[in-house]
Predict the 3D structure of the following.
Amino acid sequence: MSIALDFDHATHTARAAAPRRRSLVRLSKPDLRAALADIGLEAREAKLRAAQLWNWIYVNGVTDFARMTNIQKGVRQALGEAFLLDRPEIVSEQVSVDGTRKWLFRFRDPQRPALPPVEIETVYIPEADRGTLCVSSQVGCTLTCSFCHTGTQTLVRNLTAGEILGQVLMARERLGDFPGGSRPADGGLVPGGESRAITNVVMMGMGEPLYNYDNVRQALTIASAEDGLSLSKRRITLSTSGVVPQIEPAGREIGVMLAISLHAVRDDLRDMLVPINKKWPIKELLQAVRAYPGLSNARRVTFEYVMLRDINDSDADARELVRLLAGIPAKINLIPFNPWPGSNYACSSSERIEKFADIVNRAGYASPVRTPRGRDIFAACGQLKSETERLSKADRDALERA
Ligand code: SAH
Ligand code: SF4
């Protein structure tokens, strides 16, 4: 059973009351300084205020300039007139029987307030020793992997860096991770002890992160800044279906852990399951993985492999998988297929998954089988989707003119 909570939208809404105010959540520190210079602060003050703002936004989770007590009142007022610290609106929050939590978040573009808002899903998966936030990068997806629910929603738009960060900030607030916050008292789990509720972030929600490269890079760089949200790059994982040309830049410029949605060991089958394979087949993909900057036994790449009954789950598939990955410092994550309304696949039996895992384990790979989490609330891998639809260009233009 799951519960859906209603929110007081008045308190959780970050509407663009003054539409042309600029959002600060997404700016690098130098850009933050430049934005402050733009409203007339001289260089030394802009530098000081940028450091203070950074701390308020990312360490303290403050969304109201009035609470920034170490900034003079007049400056706070000017900041409030020029800028926004916008967060998504929570449309719904569901908690699974296993403690997994899923939010439907709504974003408005403060720079284009006439356009309808977009909605995406974000999932929190608590375990005994860690809490993982599964973050979306796009509204829908341009790719059409045949076993993935998100793939049935055409791309509406990329999320901005601020919207990607907004998911982390909002989740931290709801889970009581900011100073003075409190844990939710509704039965959802969080890891024990003093640790943060969110210890890990995975870019494994809706969308293909490497097709929204600049915004994902910006968001993850800010999320891992030590004097801010301070998530270790070893605890951030970016998953890609195989956008080969972006893999090396991602390692060099973002430097987070890499996961590859492999799912098949032959090109004819992968062409069907993960159609981007037609553009960048398995051989090219694995070449790019081998060249991933920083790859080592201590920093292994994860290969995700969805277990589809009678499709990709034979002993021969397992042996070929081991052969293909020889020499790559890797972990193999076997994901039982999660069904969704209208899906055409079935999940492999648990005996089959065990046998497959056994072959992979005996070849020396750690191959944990990912226990499906949050299936009852459609929060498991590949089950995310929102109702947001793409407007035609003519409709968008008409709304912006109105
Ligand atoms: N677009 C990126 C990020 C999404 S990650 C990517 O494809 O890698 C989500 C993971 O869940 C991917 O490995 C995806 O292939 C997998 N997945 C998609 N649909 C699934 C389903 N129905 N059951 C299990 N895993 C699924
Ligand atoms: Fe897009 Fe990833 Fe789903 Fe494929 S698996 S459709 S790339 S979200």
Observations:
- The pocket of iron/sulfur cluster (ligand 2) is lined by residues 141, 143-145, 148, 150-151, 207-208, 241, 261 (CB under 6 Å).
- The two ends are 44 Å apart (CA to CA).
- The first helix runs from residue 9 to 12.
- The CA atoms of residues 13 and 89 lie 5 Å apart.
